[in-house]
Amino acid sequence: MVRSLALIALLALSPVPAAAADNGLLVIAHRGASAERPEHTLAAYERAIDQGADYIEPDLVATKDLVLVARHENELSGTTDVASREEFEDRRRDKIIDGQRVAGWFAEDFTLAELRTLRAKERIPSVRPANARFDGLYQVPTFSEIVKLVRAKEAETGRRIGLYPEIKHPTFLLQDAGIDMVDLLLREFRQLGITPQDPVFVQSFEIAPLQRLKQRGGGFKLVQLVEPIGGPADEPGMRYAEMVTPTGLTEVATYADAIGAHIGMALNPDGTPTSLVADAKAVGMVVHAWTVRPENEFLPVMLRTGSDPKGKGCGDVKLAALLKAAGVAGIFSDGPLAGRSCP
């Protein structure tokens, strides 16, 4: 009860901006406008851009023939119709990915031509049933297509739109399939004419790929992702909790420009800031927080509207305001924030 009252008081003292992207707070469209379209589709990215997002965030995996495509995971059955496709039944595998057994169909076992026959579907239809209306309409996009979309929308809108790719499971893919995600990403950057002067952040939960990008990437902004539990897959003895201590952040700052942190690492349960933002700033880094989602199910109880877990209100905008007040420089969001206001 005390925490709830403290959060309510803080909200009363912190005016919610008419646009959550005001005053330099970057809005990063998490997998596109994933609260309104199936994630990691061109439709989701375009909708996010139209809603005012500063950056779009494609998670990148690789095909068997070494093309970068956008999926939240290399396992495909959660976000495509592959499980219903009889012609690919023999591709089903069990793999140990970052210490966890995963069963399904994996992007690295498909050529791009094969992958293009699949169609995207909503990953969490029980929470986002309206998104399921779009199941079957969209292909899995390549990174090249995403960049072309961004450039087309820049020409249409007259504003810069950033890219915020995450390289997924780079150590696993190198060891299991001989796929070097760092090489692939830098190759595609060169082919697409993307330079460090463009609005680009590259993120990873692992350490060595970011260090390699620091050495070879020529100045691209890099983001070390962290979460409350666990640690980087390529450093089994290290914990994320250790990495966000002042000593740990000093080391991270040697190769990264920002920390991409779970919201719970930037805000206490009562909505007041933790020390993370201040500690990161002390070593020259900023913090981007993930993930602001509009549905009640993903919001703190005191920010929900009504009792329906799928219900939406202003909780996401108010949460963004708390993160802004905490000094966070950017937020990952599943839904639109720019231009919205709350009572």
TrEMBL record:
The species this protein belongs to is Erythrobacter fulvus
Electron transport in keyword set: no
EC number(s) reported in the record: 3.1.4.46
Record keywords, A-Z: Glycerol metabolism, Hydrolase, Signal
Q: Name one Pfam family in it.
A: GDPD
Q: Does the keyword Signal apply?
A: yes
Catalytic activity as recorded in UniProt: a sn-glycero-3-phosphodiester + H2O = an alcohol + sn-glycerol 3-phosphate + H(+)
The protein's name is: glycerophosphodiester phosphodiesterase
| Domain GP-PDE, first and last residues per copy | 25-343
Lineage at the top is: Bacteria, Pseudomonadati, Pseudomonadota, Alphaproteobacteria, Sphingomonadales
Question: What family does the database annotate?
Answer: Belongs to the glycerophosphoryl diester phosphodiesterase family.
| Signal peptide location | 1-20
